[in-house]
From TrEMBL, chain A:
InterPro entries: ACP-like_sf, CAT-like_dom_sf, Condensation_dom, PKS_PP-bd, PP-bd_ACP, Ppantetheine_attach_site
UniProt-recorded Gene Ontology molecular function terms: ligase activity; phosphopantetheine binding
Organism the protein comes from: Lentzea albida
Name recorded for this polypeptide: Phosphopantetheine attachment site
Reported cofactor(s): pantetheine 4'-phosphate
Automatic annotation (TrEMBL), chain B:
CDD domains, per database record: AdoMet_MTases (cd02440)
Organism from which the protein derives: Lentzea albida
Name of the featured protein: Methyltransferase domain-containing protein
Swiss-Prot/TrEMBL GO biological process terms: methylation
Residue stretches making up the Methyltransferase type domain: 185-283
Keywords: Methyltransferase, Transferase
Ribosomal protein keyword on record: no
Entries under SUPFAM superfamilies matching the protein: S-adenosyl-L-methionine-dependent methyltransferases
MF (Gene Ontology): methyltransferase activity
Lineage per the UniProt record: Bacteria, Bacillati, Actinomycetota, Actinomycetes, Pseudonocardiales
Amino acid sequence: MTDTLDHRETLAGIWGRLLGLDAAAVPHDAGFLTLGGDSVLAVRMSAQVRKQLGVVLALSDVRVEITLSELADLVAQRASGGGRALPVDVLRRTDPDEPFPLLPLQQGYFVGQQDGWELSYPSAHHYVDIGLSEVEVDEAAESLQDALRRLVAHQPTLRARVLPDGQQRILPADDPAAVPTLTVTDLRDTPADDAARTLAATRHEMSTNGPNPADGPGIDIRLTLLDDDRARLHCAVSLLIIDGWSSNVFYRDLFALVADWNATLAPLDVDYGDYVTSVRQLPGTAAWEADRDWWFDRLPEFGQPPALPLRLDPAHARPDLMASTQQTVDSSTWAAVRAQCAAHGVTPSAAVFTAYACVLARAAGHRVMLLNSLQLNRLPLHPDVHRIIGAFASTMLIPVELEPSASFADLALACQRQFGDAAAHNLISGVEVSRELGRHRGTHRPVAPVVFQSTLGMDAAMGQRLPQDAGPLGVIDMHDHHQQLRTPQVALEVRLFELDDTMTAVFSYVEEIFEPGLVERMFRELLDHVRTLAEPGSWDSAVPLPAAEHPQHSADVLVLGGYGRTDTAGDSESGPPRDDLEKQISLLWQDVLDVAEVDRAGNFFAMGGDSLLAVRTLARLARETGTAVSVRDFLASPTVAGVAARIRTARPHPA
Amino acid sequence: MIERCDRAGLAAVDQAGLSALPEAMRALDEAALDTMAAVLRRAGLFRPGVSHRADQVLDRLRVADRHRWIVRGWVRALVRHGRLQASADGAVLRDLSPAPATPAPLPELCARLGYPPEVATFFTSAAARLPELLRDEVTLQSVLFGADSTETADGVYRENVINSYLNAALVEVLRGTLPPAPRVLELGAGVGATAVPVLTSLTGPLEYLFTDVSRYFLDTAGELLSADGRVRFGELDINEPASHTVDAGSCDAVIAANVLHNAIDVNAVLTTARSWLRPGGLLLVVESCGELLQAAVSMQLLMSPAPGRPAAGSLDLRAGEDRIFLTRDEWVTALRDNGLSPVLDLPHPDHPLSALGQLLLVATPTTPGATR
């Protein structure tokens, strides 16, 4: 407070000199302009603020309308803030029931839930079950349901629903549908074989039928009671509204509430909707545009995804589940790896990423690649942001160029630099960059289906270790867990996390598209490589890498990413719309795409459309023409002529 | 007198590179077209095969109302230079030319045009911030004067070939025509790019009234010229008759360098300026004329009206034409129409210097003593 007052005096002095006024007479609530200032003087003022107070104000911060009070606040804010100043603030929305937009990755998951997109599933979700022991059987279910009720009141996102038009809203806390119902299965005194079968069935059901916030709670939670005061807690969460980091927050909050009937969690000043509403203002700011230009300028240089040999074109795959395989590196080996990482100036994440990239390069036969990563992406706009449950996560593309005959240490440093450069431009999401890359390459197929995700070092940094004791739920053994992930547009994903000083790596992948045994081989290779990083010598030796920079396969060999353009006009002739139906579709597209004329053979995506817009446009078209065109049919020919042909075929022929 | 002034101007510049000026100027125009196209392309406009109307272009860029005339001007320039195709009625635009393989070498072009390096830096920074500038989130002033120094502005307004020529010619006009102890009024005197050479060259007794619309310039010039007891400072807005405290018929010369294009009505301002001149006095005008595409992606942002204010030219022949500069012929006509007889205009139209699009016009009241 005193700081702000002190600044006011200095600032009044600066204004006085610039405006030819007595410093004491400068009113604190009058705009610079009304006191005789102008835009040139405003610049001079910023320079004086920098000189006298050492605070750098962005050019866009200082408008001629600013008052002395506002300037003092701004200076105080900039003086205390580290990192780059983000050009938006999180404010509480006036109406918390109001719908708000989906963030880009949510959009991706939303359209991924509409059949027709490559590698899509009816629900994008994460499933996990965890072993519990010393359970107070009589109280467990009731206290868990009660904790759930209190948590849903505390964390509004748990009440979120996704609307058909691709928006979301948060149900009021007293809405009867707000709290998910706990399902309890009692398998005590059940023969072991039957219990195991029932557990497996629950797992399969929850893995293949995730909760869908389009029609109910985004979370499905169940408790299976077992003999000897043991139990398993099953939980499936929709990635559409709850990201991986939120799961940590969820379990921590949930267990804290279960453990103590009277526990109250520190209140949250803002909710996920407030955050999204603010972040959605970023596009169009200069900071966002600078990041966009940084990425878009680099698109032509990006490599292909690793050209892993396939047995089935992903466009023809209809997976129910992703296969997964996981291994844990023991604590002493992992401690040695971390020590080597520190000695070489790279983070454990960067080291494992580099090993992953090398394994992929060898399997794909080329060393320039485009990989994808999943990022927490919680922009530090408010102190509560890291305590909120929500879908903050975003993808970030990582172009990789592995230097042949470089040492592992050098490769890791280069990858870390690449990662850092990308992360420094994170205001535009990888989802948006991928869309543009798709337009650039003339394809709407996934441009980066190989993913890296790491939370290494983050638990320690954020102090987020889970409690081991959860009152009536007993003792939680996170090591005794079984998990299953289903994310659209992903062919292969590695996830890394630390648990009690061990490191676990998980591969999730679409099994039916890969050559049998390939992914398992790559996984073993990766884990072997990571373990050798515990030895100092391994960092200095060269890593075997293919000579080729880019994929070297003939056209008849099926590899990941080796597909042709999908934006060709197909059999429709280019030209203006031909009949009333084509004209009607063309007018609709002009409106949604903000263009002046639409060629009947012009590609919806090439003209700037994206997947969410496609879903919305198809919905509007169905309303206006009375005929629905499926996403799958639309993707086969996303042109005015193509859509008109589908509608004509679908309509009953006139007599 | 014309030849004497022309010679004085030419003597002030290095002759060696003059013949290359038109080509360098053309290249600078091309660079400006590249810049315009890049702003449109980066906003996702005119993807291959995609058409837009001009209003869709302006809306996508979220151009502030006061700057919309600038982008309309860009669209016309891009069409005129074949960088964008327009339908027969001009309403539908498409086929924006792709980005050049290598960006234009702005520093080299500016050097060839005799601009100091700060000018190329200014052009580059302005180009980089155009989306924000057009949305009015950042002012060009902050790019131009951003480093708390006037070096950039000096380079743009003062230290370049054409200004050296024009200032020398202008001084020569004054030297040959002013009576002893003359009274000189300068409008929009800015960074002093004209005042300084005039006051340096004319060493005798002189009363110099240095005026500008912005207090900033008066402060800066005050620091620069305070040692010269012949100079007085005053705020004066050429578009605000109430701020004119100059007595009719009191001036031997009125200098208006790079300011008259800001007139809402050029006729009104010329009439007023003439009223301040004694019979036989001189109006000395330095102006840009011609297309000047590089200005359309930089300095023109200074020329948009303040929100709610009428635009420059909105009450004269420029009304509705989304342009700021008059041509040489239009200036000559405007002077005549407002009771001013042209005395000279330099450089000669066939001289390479004229490619730079800057002009000195001198006129004297046609009907001495008349006031309106």
